[in-house]
């Protein structure tokens, strides 16, 4: 009801009418932005227990008709989980789909046994119940499936949601933090629909599927009613392949306050923030009474040649979310000058430097093998990972379990938006990213951690590797063979 027409594209570029266009037509903003419900945990013996059920269903996303979709505790997407630092949580994940899947906690620092990667498949009808204690600062994390070779399809059909971490320090800063009121989840995805409103899974190019309809929290043409002077948007690029350069239609500045792994040192004023698949940013937008402005993705430079940029959607202008301020706005506290202390990891403490070249759906020339451990890390050590994109396709790089810091990009210090904690980072071709990270959780060969490109088609094609985290001196050869796959 009241669903706006999807963005209409008129061009033809060899993919029927579903290709990308440089300029996207007007979006009819008339759907109230849905806010994913907060999952209600139950409390048992000091543990907060959440229940998530992956299920198939049907959703009316666009007015043309219903689509088969997947969701968690619903037919499309899932609830927002929320927990605070030091809280012990357990999530009972039940799979009511008719195929196996997994659920991975993207950005979460946790034992590998709870990570939900491709070795932790949940068979149809089964329940998987990872438990861990939240051990990281306030941040906007997310969850999504991770079955090897099938991640793109499972995410595209609708499995995913936010996992918000709170901590005491963040709660005392006076930031907007009233969920769904002045603290708004903004899960951005691009989808293709056919003329009967069904999700299309075949519009795939070199880099994966690009959709022409942008959904926020599962809805096209969304409108957010603004009720306060300052509103926090928790932006998540949950698309499978598309990157967004977020900004506002009037080019206003906004304050970026957090990257993937939590608060920045101080608010950073920007007019654009690039988020590639899997990345998050929290921003504060200030509005005056009665004002309207559109959150938009602008054409951007992925460091690729122009032809390649088109096939990534980087040349598109996309209207995403209309913000409409009430005539009376609640007062908001001023933004604090300082947000968080970020202890810099010291490169001289690193015990190992590894290199990762991403090229042709491979990392260091190798395609993901479930039975091959690629890297053996010693627990309680710091390492430097030098990562670069060796060809002219867009890739990013995500590491499980850790949040890393960017030491240098081709010898230069990172810009402020990349100076905080990150778990996923865009790699323009040929620039060398020097990352530093510390490993404090174990991963044995039966359940290793992953690193991979988060363009999910690339990941599915094998652009992924596996690492274990073990005691010093543990024999890597033994590890390579001594497991049961
Ligand atoms: Cu968001 Cu290995 O994934
Ligand atoms: Cu890639």
Description:
This protein is mainly β and 485 residues long. The protein folds into three domains: 31-165, Immunoglobulin-like, CATH 2.60.40; 183-330, Sandwich (Immunoglobulin-like); 347-470, Immunoglobulin-like. Helices cover 5% and strands 41% of the residues. It contains five helices and 35 strands. It has helices at 151-156, 168-171, 306-310, 456-460, 476-481, and strands at 31-32, 42-44, 47-62, 65-72, 81-84, 88-95, 104-106, 127-128, 131-133, 139-144, 161-166, 183-191, 204-205, 208-209, 213-216, 219-220, 222-228, 230-237, 244-248, 254-259, 262-270, 273-275, 280-286, 292-297, 318-330, 350-359, 362-363, 375-378, 381-389, 395-399, 405-409, 424-427, 433-439, 449-452, 464-470. The strands form seven sheets. The chain has a seven-stranded mixed beta sheet, with no helix packed on it. It is globular and about 65 Å long. The N and C termini lie far apart (49 Å). 49% of the residues are buried. Mean pLDDT is 92; it is low at 1-24 and 480-485. The protein binds CU-O-CU linkage and copper (II) ion. CU-O-CU linkage binds at residues 104, 106, 144, 146, 278, 398, 400, 450, 452, 454.
């Amino acid at each position: 009801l009241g669903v706006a027409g999807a963005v209409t594209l008129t061009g033809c570029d060899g993919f029927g009418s579903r290709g990308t266009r440089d300029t996207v037509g007007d979006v009819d903003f008339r759907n109230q932005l849905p806010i994913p419900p907060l999952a209600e945990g139950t409390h048992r013996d000091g543990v907060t227990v959440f229940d998530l059920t992956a299920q198939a269903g049907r959703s009316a996303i666009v007015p043309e008709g219903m689509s088969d979709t997947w969701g968690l505790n619903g037919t499309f997407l899932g609830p927002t989980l929320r927990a605070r630092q030091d809280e012990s949580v357990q999530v009972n994940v039940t799979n009511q789909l008719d195929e196996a899947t997994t659920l991975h906690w993207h950005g979460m620092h946790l034992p590998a046994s709870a990570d939900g990667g491709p070795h932790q498949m949940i068979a149809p009808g089964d329940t998987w119940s990872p438990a861990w204690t939240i051990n990281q600062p306030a941040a906007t994390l997310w969850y999504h499936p991770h079955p090897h070779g099938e991640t793109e399809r499972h995410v595209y059909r609708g499995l995913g949601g936010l996992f918000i971490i709170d901590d005491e320090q963040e709660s005392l800063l006076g930031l907007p933090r009233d969920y769904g009121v002045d603290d708004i989840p903004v899960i951005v995805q691009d989808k293709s629909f056919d003329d009967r409103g069904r999700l299309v899974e075949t519009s795939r190019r070199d880099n994966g599927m690009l959709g022409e309809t942008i959904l926020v929290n599962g809805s096209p043409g969304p409108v957010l009613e603004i009720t306060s002077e300052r509103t926090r948007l928790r932006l998540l690029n949950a698309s499978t392949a598309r990157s967004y350069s977020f900004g506002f239609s009037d080019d206003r500045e906004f304050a970026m306050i957090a990257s993937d792994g939590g608060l920045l040192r101080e608010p950073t004023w920007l007019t654009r923030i690039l988020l590639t698949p899997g990345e998050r940013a929290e921003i504060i937008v200030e509005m005056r009474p009665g004002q309207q402005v559109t959150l938009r993705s602008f054409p951007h430079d992925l460091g690729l040649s122009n032809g390649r940029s088109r096939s990534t959607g980087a040349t598109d202008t996309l209207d995403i979310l209309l913000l409409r301020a009430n005539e009376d706005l609640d007062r908001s506290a001023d933004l604090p000058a300082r947000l968080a202390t970020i202890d810099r990891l010291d490169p001289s403490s690193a015990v190992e430097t590894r290199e990762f070249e991403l090229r042709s759906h491979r990392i260091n020339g190798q395609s993901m093998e479930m039975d091959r451990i690629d890297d053996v890390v010693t627990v309680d050590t710091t390492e430097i990972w030098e990562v670069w994109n060796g060809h002219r396709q867009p890739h990013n790089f995500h590491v499980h379990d850790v949040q890393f810091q960017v030491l240098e990009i081709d010898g230069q210090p990172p810009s402020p938006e990349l100076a905080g904690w990150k778990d996923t980072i865009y790699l323009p071709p040929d620039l060398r990213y020097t990352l530093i990270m510390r490993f404090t959780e174990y991963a044995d060969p039966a359940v290793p951690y992953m690193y991979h490109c988060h363009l999910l088609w690339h990941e599915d094609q094998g652009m992924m590797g596996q690492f274990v985290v073990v005691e010093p001196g543990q024999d890597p050869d033994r590890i390579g063979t001594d497991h049961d796959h």
